[in-house]
Amino acid sequence: MASKWIDNSAFEKFVEEKKQEKESTPQGAGFKMRMAAQWKNPVRGTTDKPKIYTGRFLPDPKRQYYKKYFYHMFPVGEGWQFHLCPKTYDMNNFCPWCSVTSSLYQGTAADKKTAYTYKRKEKYVANFYIVNDPRDPESENKVNNTVKMYEFPGKLEAKVKEQVTDSTNGLGAAIFDPGDGGYDLIIKITSTKKDPKGNVWPDYSLSDFSRKSYALGTDEEIEEIMKQTIDIDEYLEAMERDSETIEATLKQLMLWDMVSDEMGKNKSFATIPTPSTDAKEEEDIPEPAKEDVKMDAEGDDLSDSDLLKELESY
User: Burial level of 303, CB count in 10 A (0-12/13-18/19+)?
Assistant: First the structure.
C-alpha cells in the first residue's frame, strides 16, 4: 500500500544497502544533544516475564531509515568514556582505539585481556516514536507519544532487517510508515539464564512487529510527529570527540606511545569536543559482577580466537 509518508525510491535504495551489507557478527554540546534526543535504554525483564515496549520506526528528515555505528566504551578513572569509532563512516578511517586494540593483542596474555576493554562494538540508531514505555508513569521525563533516537543492538536489528529485505513475507517500508499502513515494533526483553560466570544478558528473541497496522494520528498530527525527527548524520556527528580530548585520554591511560605516530598523521578523524568522562550505559556491563571486560554490549563472550578473527578487520 502506497503511503505519502514513505519515499518509495529512497526506501528501495535503503533495501539494496541492507541486502548488500555484510552480516555483522558528560557535558559538552554534543553529549547534551545526544542525551536529550536518546531514548533511555529499555531494561530487561526476568527469564520468564519480559519487559514490553512499543513504538514505530520513522524516517529522518533526509529519508534515512536507520544506520549502524561503531563505538568504543571503557572505564577511565571513576567513570566511563564513550567514543564514536571513525570506522562508522569508512572502515579505512584511522581509529586510535582500534589501533590500541590491535597492538595490545600482539602482546602478553595480560595485554590480550586488556584488548577486550577497548575493542570496537556496534549498535544501530533510528528515529523511534514511542507508543508505550512502561516506565513513563514513574518518570519525570515523559516519553510516550514523542520521537526519540533509539540505539538498538544487532540482535534486534536482525529482526528489522528481515522485514526490510524479505520481499515475499516482510513488511518492508510499512515498518517506517506513521500512516494507517504502518506497523509498530513490540520490543519484548527477557533475561538469559546465568552463564557459568554468573552473567545475565538481555534477550530480544520474543520481539516482533505488530499484526495490525494503524495510523499514529490524523494527517495533521503525523505532520507534527515528523517534525520531531532528527537527522541521523547530525546525531552521529554529535557523538564525536576532538583529537585533543582523545590524546589526553590516551595519555591518562598510558596508551599514547602506541598510537602517537599514527595520531600525528591523522589529525582530522574527530571534530566535535565532548567531556572527558561519561556515565556508563545501562546494559553495557553484565550483571551481577563486572569480572572482566571482554564482553560486548550484547553479551558476547569472545574467545581469543574470536577476537583474533575480529581484529583482522582493524
Answer: exposed
